[in-house]
Amino acid sequence: xxxxxxxxxxxxxxxxxxxxxxxxxxxxxxxxxxxxxxxxxxxxxxxxxxxxxxxxxxxxxxxxxxxxxxxxxxxxxxxxxxxxxxxxxxxxxxxxxxxxxxxxxxxxxxxxxxxxxxxxxxxxxxxxxxxxxxxxxxxxxxxxxxxxxxxxxxxxxxxxxxxxxxxxxxxxxxxxxxxxxxxxxxxxxxxxxxxxxxxxxxxxxxxxxxxxxxxxxxxxxxxxxxxxxxxxxxxxxxxxxxxxxxxxxxxxxxxxxxxxxxxxxxxxxxxxxxxxxxxxxxxxxxxxxxxxxxxxxxxxxxxxxxxxxxxxxxxxxxxxxxxxxxxxxxxxxxxxxxxxxxxxxxxxxxxxxxxxxxxxxxxxxxxxxxxxxxx
Amino acid sequence: xxxxxxxxxxxxxxxxxxxxxxxxxxxxxxxxxxxxxxxxxxxxxxxxxxxxxxxxxxxxxxxxxxxxxxxxxxxxxxxxxxxxxxxxxxxxxxxxxxxxxxxxxxxxxxxxxxxxxxxxxxxxxxxxxxxxxxxxxxxxxxxxxxxxxxxxxxxxxxxxxxxxxxxxxxxxxxxxxxxxxxxxxxxxxxxxxxxxxxxxxxxxxxxxxxxxxxxxxxxxxxxxxxxxxxxxxxxxxxxxxxxxxxxxxxxxxxxxxxxxxxxxxxxxxxxxxxxxxxxxxxxxxxxxxxxxxxxxxxxxxxxxxxxxxxxxxxxxxxxxxxxxxxxxxxxxxxxxxxxxxxxxxxxxxxxxxxxxxxxxxxxxxxxxxxxxxxx
Lengths: 375, 375
Description:
The structure is a homodimer of 375-residue chains. The first copy, chain A, is mainly α. In chain A, 55% of the residues lie in helices and 6% in strands. The first copy, chain A, contains 16 helices and seven strands. In chain A, the strands form two sheets. Chain A has a three-stranded antiparallel sheet with strand order 3-4-5. The two termini of chain A are 18 Å apart. Chains A and B meet through strand 2, strand 5, helix 1, helix 3 and helix 4 of A and strand 2, strand 5, helix 1, helix 3 and helix 4 of B.
C-alpha cells in the first residue's frame, strides 16, 4: 500500500486555463466585453435582440433580408408541441421551473421533427422563450401562453411572462437586458454545452446539459437569489448592517463577484443605469434603485467586490412585474443563442474535451474477503 | 478594427490538463487502472457489482452489514414512479433510448421525493438500471419490467434487458463487464457531471448532463457503433480489407483508441478473455470472437491502436442477447455510481469549473446601421 503523490498539479476550477480559441465573445478583467468584435455598449445601445443573436451566431451583423429570414425562421418554429406540453404537465405544480425547461428541452430531442442541424438549433432558440414563459404555468395546469405575430422577440417574451402592459421604454430595457444575457464567453453553462458538443452529441442534448448547469446557485440561480436578498433587506439604510451580519455568519452575498471582472462588470453598469432611468421615468418610488446602490457601495467599501449582471438584472425584472422564479428561465431563453454559437464553434474544429486528473489516492491494495474486513 | 492575438495558448480538449485531485480512480498510459487503490483485475476477479459500487462511492470495501444496508437502500428505491413512466410514454416509439433516459432522469428532479442528498443519489443509482431496461419498451407502449427481489444487482439488469435464461457463468461475465463500466476517472461524462456539480446543482441535473454527454458517438455511443461495425464485417477473413477501405475513406473505426491508453486498455483485455471463455463454454460458433481478434490484429498492425472497452463489451452484450440500442443505456446504469462519486468529491472542496478561452476574433468594431451593411 503506497501513497501515490503525482507529478502534475491540478488546476482547480480550470481558472486561467484556456480551453479553446474563440471568435464569439471576450470578457476581460478591465471590465470590457466584446461581442464578435463589438464593444458591448455599442451593441446594447444600438442593436436589437434578433440582430445581436444573428451577430453572435454568424459573426456579422445581418443585412435587412438576412434579418428578416432569421426572424421568420424563429417565428415559424416557436410553437411547442402538444407532447412536450404533456411532459411538462406530468411534472406537477411544485416542479422547479428550470427542471421543467430542462426536461422539456430533453424531450424535444425525441419529439422535434427538424431534419438539419441549423433547423434543430433554431427550434431550440425559438422554443426556449416559450418554455421560459410557460415553465410554471403548464405544470400547474394553466393554459400555455404563445408568442404573437408581429412583435419583437423580446416583446414577445415579456408579454408571455407578464400580464401587464409595458411602456416602450420598459420594453426596450427588457430587450437590452436580454442582449446582455445572450452570451458571455466561457461561462459554466456554455462550457458545459461545449463539453457535450465535443462528444458530437446533438444540440438538444447539449442544451439540456447547459440547463442542468444553470440549475446551480453558483451559476444560473444567482439572479433569483439576488432578488430574494434585496426583498429581505428592503430598506437602503439597512444595507450595511445586513452585509456585516452576512460577513460574520460567512454567508455568500449573491449577485456580487465574478471570475473575470474584478473592478466592474460592464453589464451591471449598463443595467444599473437602465434601472435608474426606468424608475425615474415612472416618477414614483425609487427605493429599489437606492437599495441596490447602497448595497453596491457598502460591498465595495467592505470587500472591494463589484456587483455582477445578475444583481442589477434582478430588480429590473422585478420592476417589470416578472415573478422571481422566472429569472433563471429568462437567462436560458437568452443564453441559448450563445450556447448554439459555442456548439457550432466547437464542432468547426472538434477535439473531445477530456481533461486529466491528479490521482492522490492509494495504490497496490489487495482484495480482502468480506469476512476479514474491518469496519 | 484590430486582430487581437492573445497571449496564452488554448489547451484543446484539455488533454493533459489536470482539473482536480482525485482519490476515486486512475487510468494510466501503461495500461493500468486503479479503483480506490485496487488494481482493476483484483476487483474484476474477486468482487461483485454492489461491493465495487460501494467501494467507488465510499473509498473502502464494505463489511457484510454495510453491504446489506447499501443493497437494501438500492432495492427499496428501484421503483420508477408512474409519472416518470408517463413522461417516457409521451416520447413515442421512435425515441432514442438515451434521450428517453435523459428525459426520465431530468423529470425525476421534480418527481422524486427523496429528501437528503445521499437518498437522491441512491434513487438515481437504483432507478438507472430500471430506466435502461425500459427505455425502449415504455415509449413503445410495452409493459415496464421491474427488478425481482433476491437477485444480484447485475442479474436484475440482465433479466430486465433480455427474456432469455442466462447461465451462471454468463451472468458473472455480465456483472464483470458492469464493474468495468462503473467508473473511469475523468472521462467526458464524469467531467460533465463535475462541471454541473461545481455550480452546486442537484444530482438529477448533474446526472442528466452526464447522460447528455453519453449521447455523443465519441463517448457513450461507441459500444453500439462498434457492434454495428462488427455485424457489417461479419467474416474474420474480411477484417483487413474492411479496415483498409475505411482508412482510404478516412472513416473512424469505432471501439479503437483512447485518450489515455496507448498500448492496451486493461478492460478490453479482460473482456476479450470473458468473450472467448463464454463462447468456448457454449461450445458452438466462435466466429464473433475470431472476428474481434482479427480486427484487433489488423488494426494494431496498420495503426498501432489498441481496442478499448467498448470494442469487447459490445460482442459480449450481443452474445447475451441484448439489443444493440441498449448498450449505451447499460453504460449509464453502471457509470451512474462513478458519476455520483465524482459529484461528491467535487463538492467536498468545490470551486466553480469555469475555464477561460483565447479570443482570436476582432475588436473595436463600430455599429453600422442596417441600411449601410454589406452582405
